[in-house]
Design goal:
This protein is of the alpha/beta class and 310 residues long. It has nine helices and nine strands. The structure holds 4-ethoxy-4-oxobutanoic acid (9J3) and zinc ion.
Amino acid sequence: MHSTPHTPAGHRGSHRTPRPTRRRLAGAAAAITAVVGLSTLTSPGAQAADNPYERGPAPTQSSIEALRGPYSVSETSVSSLGVTGFGGGTIYYPTSTSDGTFGAVAIAPGFTAYQSSMAWLGPRLASQGFVVFTIDTNSTVDQPASRGEQLLAALDYLTERSTVRTRIDSSRLGVMGHSMGGGGTLEAAKDRPSLQAAIPLTPWNTDKTWPEVSTPTLIVGADGDTIAPVASHAEPFYSSLPSSTDRAYLELNSATHFSPNSSNTTIAKYSISWLKRFIDNDTRYEQFLCPLPSSSLTIEEYRGNCPHTS
Ligand code: 9J3
Ligand code: ZN
């Protein structure tokens, strides 16, 4: 709706150290080329070899706006009694194992809230091809730094001990969260630079500056937020991210602090695009991020640098 087809000419030049996944990707591509020979790479079936992390069909505006993506979703509950470092949660994951492993995302709720406040994102994102872990915190009054640690503990549980651990590529992980959970999302990215994507939703934090974050970060603010006003939270958080970091700021129009707590297509479509682009290295989604989306009935403002060339 707001974007036009992306062209290679729209890419910015790469100007930073390649990520480990990109080095691995290059190595894998070289190995495949050596084994199968160049002629095979020109056949239609060679597409998956270009990006081993690509999952699902080519996206469209309607596919990223849909209530569900192409994968059927299963879920499993994780009791707080069986884990340490966070408060348990629910894992949503693609039912089928025939497409290999998936990237994974942990999602934290806000102050006084529970995993139920973010539950809509579980199947919405998992059905697009991610393992999604909506968590409870140890206490509903835990502060952002604690929520960041708990997001990381949840990812460690997910990839090392959970029943779905074999379905996950542990090198492709991301974090999301609402309000203090969004503040925690920034804390997690600051503490673990190997994370591939971060999406703070109407984030709240007393720390206003995030120059330490190198993880690609999409910050979502709400124009009518009176609890975490964008002028003192989302906007300075975004502005303080290094310009060398892949970053974007999406300000929702006619929205409140609690807009991320119920089904929201604008949040979903840009979150899906961000996670696909940076967790799966899936450049098919770059068309929705670059050129930058225009203001609209649902978008008050959008800022960002177009994704850096991989
Ligand atoms: O998680 C949040 O909703 C943070 C906003 C808040 O209530 O902060 C007050 C200390
Ligand atoms: Zn800071």
